[in-house]
Amino acid sequence: MEFSSKLIEEGVQAFASLPGIGKKTALRLVIHLLHEDEDLAKSISEAIYKLRTEIKYCKKCGNVSDKDICDVCSHPARDHQQICVVENFRDILSLENTGQYKGVYHTLGGLISPLDGVHPEQLNIESLISRVQNDNVQEVIMALNPTIEGDMTLFYISKRLSKFPVKVTALARGVAFGGELEFVDEITLARSLQSRQPYENYITGPHQ
Amino acid sequence: MEFSSKLIEEGVQAFASLPGIGKKTALRLVIHLLHEDEDLAKSISEAIYKLRTEIKYCKKCGNVSDKDICDVCSHPARDHQQICVVENFRDILSLENTGQYKGVYHTLGGLISPLDGVHPEQLNIESLISRVQNDNVQEVIMALNPTIEGDMTLFYISKRLSKFPVKVTALARGVAFGGELEFVDEITLARSLQSRQPYENYITGPHQ
Q1: Is the ipTM of this complex over 0.90?
Q2: Which of B1, B25, B50 sits opposite A20 (nearest CB)?
Q3: CA B188, B194, B199, B204: dihedral to nearest 10 degrees?
Q4: Of B34, B72, B97, the CB nearest to A52
Q5: Best interface-test mutation with B: which of A48, A68, A111, A122 has the largest number of B CBs within 10 A?
Q6: N or C terminus: fewer CB in 10 A for chain B?
């Protein structure tokens, strides 16, 4: 498409550089902004700029925050001896939404993936080790994606932590609630069968 | 969702205020921006801001442009006695992409729609009348959406232009090229039948 204005072209390119937004959608967004009040474009522009330039990461757990220490880490009622290790703050959001977890978090900032050039030293693993070492941590819960990268990271960290007197656990894997067995993949189903649980565990779970 | 940072929340709200982008997609875009280089966020922010604050509209036809008079209006080879009336610059883009039109344009900025509170005086209709009056215009081609609003606008403008010695035409309506008759709606099919054309028109058309 050839635009009659360089500004339109730059606007379309800007939106189209975001994931999941194509040129046509980008043009629709540009037209929307032109039709709307000038304040809307200004506030969106400002929000995007501030987002990237002013964002802070909690010095303790690496979660995004407006302060040096995030709300979870500074909360007095949280159990600081229980650390849940996640890939990024998106996972913290999901876990917090369950309302079930009362410990603190640790954000790795990614998963080990040699193929993508992500090695352990690029992730926040050393800071996790030193937290375990210094903060009298009792349990490290690994809440990583059930993928090859997640499992690799899980393996690496559990190995690094094996010399400390800390319990390392991982999220339970099995069939999801509300799903149908017919559509569960073979590996998940086979593993769920192997790690079957006594019936009592079902009725005392958080979903009741 | 409760975010651990006000900046994240504002970023999500900014993206979610755009049409077709929900909260989940907005959060995905925010995470993308945080992962990417700071320059990306800066350039997107700047493009959006400039887009809305620096955009100019051609003083002649109302098309978006970086100059006072747009490239189409200032082109010496364009036929200035033929004006194609469109709703917005998006339609100009579509028409220019056909490569078939050599006249100039006039952008209304909307369509008459009493239900939405859009009346003739809010659109660029007076400027069209004065162009027809002063520029020795031979033909006005109405290229408006085939909707009730489009037809209403078409009717209003053709009535206003009836006292001038100018030919008013409208885009042909009929079955689209490459479509299947089975899926054409009844009104379009009935009208195509009524305004059937001699076979010669088919083989001399621009699609050959």
Answers
A1: no
A2: B25
A3: -60
A4: B34
A5: A48
A6: C
Domains of chain A: 6-54 (1.10.8.420), 77-171 (3.40.1360.10), 174-208 (no CATH)
Q: Which residues pair with A79 in a beta bridge?
A: A103
Decide: residue B157, CB within 10 A, 0-12 exposed, 13-18 middle, 19+ buried: buried
**Digit-coded pLDDT (tens) for A156-165:** 999 999 999 9
Distance from the A126 Cα atom to the nearest Cα atom in chain B, whole angstroms: 20
Long-range residue pairs from A45-48, CB within 8 A, at least 24 positions apart, any chain: A45/B45, A45/B46, A45/B48, A45/B49, A46/B45, A47/B7, A47/B10, A47/B11, A47/B13, A47/B14, A48/B11, A48/B14, A48/B33, A48/B41, A48/B44, A48/B45, A48/B48
Average pLDDT over residues A5-16: 91
Residue A203 has a pLDDT of: 59
| Of B3, B47, B89, Cβ closest to residue A11 | B47
Q: Which pLDDT tens digit goes with each residue over A33-77?
A: 988 888 999 999 999 999 888 888 899 999 988 888 998 999 999
Asked which of A19-23, A111-115, A177-181 is least confident by mean pLDDT, the reply is: A177-181
